[in-house]
Amino acid sequence: MSDPLDGDRLSAALSALGVRPGGVLLVHASLRAVGPVVGGPTAVLAALRQAVGREGTVVVPTFTPENSDTSPHYLARVRGLDAEAREAVRASMPPFDPATTPAPSVGALAETVRTAAGAGRSGHPQTSFAAIGPGAGKLLAGHRPDCHLGEDSPLARLYEADARILLLGTGYDTCTAFHLGEYRRPGPPLRTYRCVVTLRGVRQWWAYEDVALDDGDFGSLGAAFEEAAGPGDVRTALLGSAPCRLLRLRAAVDFATGWLTDHR
Predict the structure, then answer these.
(1) What is the pLDDT of residues 54-95, one digit of tens each?
(2) What are the phi and psi torsion angles at 186 (to 5°)?
């Protein structure tokens, strides 16, 4: 069994993979897949920040399906319960607060970024992002509550910033940027979402219409993208125990827009 990674080795490996100082990096991470890192998630974040340098910014999804009654997370939670028990679950769900609401479903690194000193978070009650670095404010601003992952979300700002995506021990099924391609294809289907928010100091349920998000074919989409990728669009390496990829976000979104138009 190999020795645990330390922060310096991880930072050097990220640089060798192609992470550059001054860049913007959207990270999806499975630290369990990576294996032991001396210092845990805090050391991983420090290594990421070292790799992007003082002028670079690290971004993570901090999604919160736990406060919605239309999410797969909620439907799994109440499966088999009667109406009274389901209503008790709904009544116990706290409203979203960008300053305090945890994001347990997206992993330890995301929580580490969200709670880090100097980090910011966008305001969407379901699909917020957290970021740390000098570009955080601009990337997170203007996340409209009725736009999960479209033009009025941090994903579009990441596209404009020519960000890179780091899949650190995760697969293409977690590649959130592909969702921007769902918005950009012609006539995407819509659906109604519901979640718990605080409006004028009062906890209440809020319903809104947005693009029907579906990541069920992202594995196939990612494989097709990698096969067609241009020079520098996809870089791969083994970090710890995990295969990792560094992607150009613009290339991934542009390819996804065309692929989803053709395949859905």
Answers:
(1) 999 999 999 999 999 999 999 999 999 999 999 999 999 999
(2) -65, 130
pTM (predicted TM-score): 0.96
Q: What is the pLDDT of residues 2-25, one digit of tens each?
A: 578 888 999 999 999 999 999 999
Structure token digits, residue 64: 């919160």
CB 109 within 8 A of CB 127: no
The two tokens of residue 213 are 């998000």
Q: Please give the torsion angle defined by the CA atoms of residues 82, 207, 191 and 83, in that order, rounded to the nearest 10 degrees.
A: 10
Distances (CA, A) of 159 to 64, 133, 164: 23, 17, 9
Q: Element (H or E) spanning 90, and its range? A: helix 83-92
Half-sphere exposure of 133 (CA within 13 A, CB side): 27
Fill in the DSSP letter of residue 5.
B
CA dist., res. 190 & res. 72, Å (int): 17
The residues that bridge with 211 in the sheet, in sequence order, are 190
| Cβ-based neighbour number of residue 243 at 10 Å | 14
Helix (H) or strand (E) holding 246: strand 242-248
Query: Secondary structure of 225-236 in the HEC alphabet?
Result: HHHHCCCCCEEE
Cβ neighbours for 56, distance < 8 A, ≥ 6 positions apart: 20, 21, 22, 23, 24, 25, 49, 133, 135
Q: What is the DSSP string of 24-83?
A: EEEEEE-HHHH--BTTHHHHHHHHHHHHH-TT-EEEEE---GGGBSSSHHHHHHHTT--H
Quick: pLDDT tens for 122-175.
Answer: 999 999 999 999 999 999 999 999 999 999 999 999 999 999 999 999 999 999
Place of tokens 């791969």: 236
